[in-house]
Design goal:
The chain is 74% helix and 2% strand. It is mainly alpha-helical. The protein has a domain of 209 residues. The strands form 2 sheets. Strands 1-4 form a two-stranded antiparallel sheet. Helix 3 crosses helix 10 and helix 4 runs antiparallel to helix 5.
Length: 327
């Protein structure tokens, strides 16, 4: 007797629409496990999780922006600027608290500028945030002429712990990542703020008639995105032991890939924390596996660009509505 897994093509289509991203992650994990001897070692798994922690934190902040129908092209440049601000403040004052405050304030300021340009002045998200990112790039190069800012490794043992420390067997950045993940789930699904963010992204006209202050909420989503970039930048600076002006530039393409993969997760058609986590895991596994295979870095860009195209095509061809408008 034959047991049909799918009665017709529509069943197969629905299955792929809901679980295709998860299946892709499992296939990628299995392939790398089979062809790379050291891929499944405990040390590499922990390194993989630590690498994906910063990407996941930024992408979770991006969830709010894209959930409200927006986009943020400034995250890569902002990461480097925040790192420079942090390192210069730490060197100038010797106070970790002031340096952390300056970094978070810088991220908040970038988010405010993006939010004001988009929500209140009315510029298109893509153009406004791309322009802000370009300005930020110039500012951070002007600050140090493009040179990295180093500081003594013993200037703050607590700060070194943020990016390189362990709590038991787990890297501290991974613990931060899971905390931000839980917090994002709570805010998006258990608070009126999160529900209104998704409502704005789903139908801004209906949200306006429902009395939701769209401008205020969209501004808030960009501020959250800026703060998430600041947190990831702090972790990255701690991990590197210095502030690199170009550090974090690669996050832009990675985050775009992650959020579009997130929209294909379970056929939601909108970015979700769980989809973001799986998307970040896929991109991080690609980065980790291709590096272990000694694949040239430019092929990694080709691969991740292809992932973005495939994710968008899947979202469109499987009948999902992307919550994004570029112009």
């Amino acid at each position: 007797m034959k047991i049909a897994l799918f009665n017709n093509r529509n069943d197969l289509r629905e299955f792929i629409r809901k679980y295709g991203t998860v299946i892709g992650a499992l296939i990628l994990f299995i392939v790398f496990s089979l062809i790379i001897e050291r891929f499944l070692t405990a040390s590499n798994i922990l390194m993989l999780l630590r690498q994906m922690s910063m990407l996941t934190i930024i992408a979770l902040g991006f969830n709010f922006v894209m959930g409200a129908g927006g986009f943020d092209m400034s995250i890569g440049s902002a990461c480097g600027l925040i790192a420079m601000v942090f390192a210069l403040t730490l060197l100038g004052t010797g106070s970790l608290l002031l340096a952390l405050s300056a970094a978070l304030l810088c991220g908040l300021l970038v988010g405010l500028i993006n939010g004001m340009l988009v929500a209140y002045i009315g510029l298109p998200d893509f153009i406004a945030t791309f322009a802000v990112g370009s300005i930020i790039y110039g500012v951070k190069m002007l600050m140090t002429r493009g040179n990295p800012v180093s500081y003594p490794s013993d200037i703050s043992p607590v700060f070194a712990f943020i990016g390189r420390g362990f709590v038991g067997p787990f890297p501290f950045p991974v613990i931060i990542m899971f905390f931000i993940f839980i917090l994002t789930v709570f805010v998006l699904y258990r608070t009126s703020f999160g529900r209104r963010v998704y409502a704005i992204g789903g139908n801004p006209v209906a949200s306006l008639y429902a009395g939701i202050n769209i401008k205020k909420y969209r501004l808030a989503t960009f501020v959250i995105s800026g703060l998430s970039v600041a947190l990831a930048s702090i972790i990255l600076t701690s991990r590197l032991g210095s502030a690199q002006p170009l550090a974090g530039e690669e996050f832009l393409l990675d985050v775009i890939a992650v959020v579009f993969l997130s929209t294909t997760m379970f056929g939601e058609g909108e970015p979700t924390p769980s989809g973001t986590f799986i998307g970040a895991l896929i991109i991080s596994m690609l980065n980790n596996g291709l590096t272990m295979l000694n694949v040239p870095y430019y092929f990694q860009f080709i691969t991740k660009g292809s992932v973005v195209i495939v994710a968008v095509l899947l979202a469109v061809t499987l009948g999902q509505k992307l919550r994004i408008k570029f112009l």
